Amino acid sequence: MMSATVVHKFITFVGFMSILHAAYSAAQHRSYLRITEQEFTTLPIDILIQGIASLFIVMYGVMYIAGDFKEIRAVVDLENKSWETLRNLPSFQVFNHRGRSLSPEYIPE
């Protein structure tokens, strides 16, 4: 059972801050290239590595914060339920309807 601890929340926070720092560095690099009138070809390798590593750090932290994963297949959740339980739809049960007035035992109020 995976539970979110303070450590996992801190790891996720650090990952988000690192992604924001990589984005700020990329924007600053682009503005530097505009000021020096150089052509943009690609980001420096350190910004790319920081962005990718930060993405994986955030994914790791979010996996623990999100909790346990559920099966995609509905059969896993439904195989322990009986047919009566599956067909029980309380929102569609109506007990007070006009058909009761057709009953021979009906006495109007």
Explained architecture:
The chain is mostly helical and 109 residues long. It contains four helices and no strands. The chain has one domain. Helices cover 57% and strands 0% of the residues. Helix 1 packs antiparallel against helix 2. The protein is elongated and about 95 Å long.
Task: Label the overall shape.
Answer: elongated
Helical residues, percent: 55-70%
Report on the biggest sheet.
none
Distance between the termini: 58 Å
Strand % is under 5%
Based on CA atoms alone, the radius of gyration comes out at 30 Å
- How many β-strand stretches? 0
* Low-confidence residue ranges: none
Question: Helix count?
Answer: 4
What oligomeric assembly is this protein in? Answer: single chain
**Averaging pLDDT over every residue, what do you get?**
83
Q: Would you list the SSEs in sequence order as H and E?
A: HHHH
Which class best fits the helix and strand makeup? mainly alpha
Number of domains: 1
Family: Belongs to the membrane magnesium transporter (TC 1.A.67) family.
Function: Part of the endoplasmic reticulum membrane protein complex (EMC) that enables the energy-independent insertion into endoplasmic reticulum membranes of newly synthesized membrane proteins. May be involved in Mg(2+) transport.
Keywords: Endoplasmic reticulum, Endosome, Golgi apparatus, Magnesium, Membrane, Transmembrane, Transmembrane helix, Transport
InterPro entries: MMgT (IPR018937)
